[in-house]
């Protein structure tokens, strides 16, 4: 039986999985205008009547993307999603030579996939600095995704800011030197301190702080899933905004799921909504950290999907199709807080519009006031870090990086 089409403004993405059960409009991977997703061709949008097309059509526009930490638990699936996206014509996989798997092996593996995307690997020993040796890797990049840092388990927030801030800074200063116009998406903890620190360092160097974005999309996915399962509404039709920060530390709960703003989720009783909000925060705290899954924990596959949903939104915008996604960045969306996670529209220049919070319930407003106090402290921690350091301009590279 033919099922009704889904409204294009509500059913975004490769939510591509839904192509098999719902007749979606001809939009592409996570909303791109090419009409292709990484699963397109496995089966036609209307079912088995369409011919088998294993390779989706590739748009004329192609972008260069770099995944830093690309050989890790999170980096590997993220690299595969990037390589599958028709928008990506060149993928750079960077990691340290001591990583779990050699980046060269990851690149060789991905290069077998029947896509236009060219994949190269870059690795450095621990004594070499990215700002001195990643010129070829980063030059020409439109998007850099950094999934680096130590997991949160057993660490105080101050320790995470110090350790992870240092790791991210080495990537960010190389981006500032070799691809200053690229959007830099950070998957790091605590994102509410590290992003302000890196944005402030960019600003001190005369660069656009809005190029630095913290990826918080996973909280949105979780809120959508909870609401969909509770209401029975298809997940493709649920859009629960998650604003504030990101609940990435066991002592921090700075994300706020606005269930009242989604028509389906708003029908959920207040007590259940409060429970779902707590679940979103607790899951983030339990599963945060790019290396957490080495001990059997960590949301690596769903985090990779969430990160590439953000990445695809950036590339869609650069290709000329304005696309909305949630992230944490310098913002005036919430009075009294200089960095905030909310809906952002990506366009030809990257961040084009930061949307206001909108109307929220009384309970959500009370929670927002508590979250703001948490965010103010985290942001100040990031600023303090930025005051103690500068982005290095490095020196002229003395030897080429290894590549595949």
Gross morphology is globular
Count, helices: 10
Uncertain stretches of 5 or more adjacent residues: 1-36, 39-54, 291-296, 397-404
- Integer average pLDDT: 83
- Per DSSP E runs of 2 or more residues, the count of β-strands stands at 12
Largest sheet: 7 strands, mixed
Measure the end-to-end span. 49 Å
Residue share in helix = 25-40%
SS strand fraction: 15-25%
Cα-atom Rg, whole angstroms? 20 Å
Reading the helices and strands in chain order gives EHEHEHHEHEHEHEEHHEEEHE
What does the model show?
This protein is an alpha/beta fold and 404 residues long. 35% of the residues lie in helices and 16% in strands. The protein has 10 helices and 12 strands. The protein has helices at residues 75-84, 103-110, 130-133, 135-138, 157-178, 191-204, 217-231, 270-287, 300-318, 362-387; strands spanning 63-68, 88-96, 118-124, 143-146, 183-186, 212-214, 242-244, 255-257, 323-330, 339-347, 350-354, 402-403. The strands form 3 sheets. A 7-stranded mixed β-sheet has the order 6-5-4-1-2-3-12, sandwiched between helices. Strands 9-10-11 form a 3-stranded antiparallel β-sheet. The radius of gyration is 20 Å and the shape is globular. Mean pLDDT is 83; it is low at 1-36, 39-54, 291-296 and 397-404.
Keywords:
single chain; 404 residues; alpha/beta; seven-stranded mixed β-sheet; three-stranded antiparallel β-sheet; globular
Task: Give a brief outline of the structure.
This protein is an alpha/beta fold and 404 residues long. The chain is 35% helix and 16% strand.
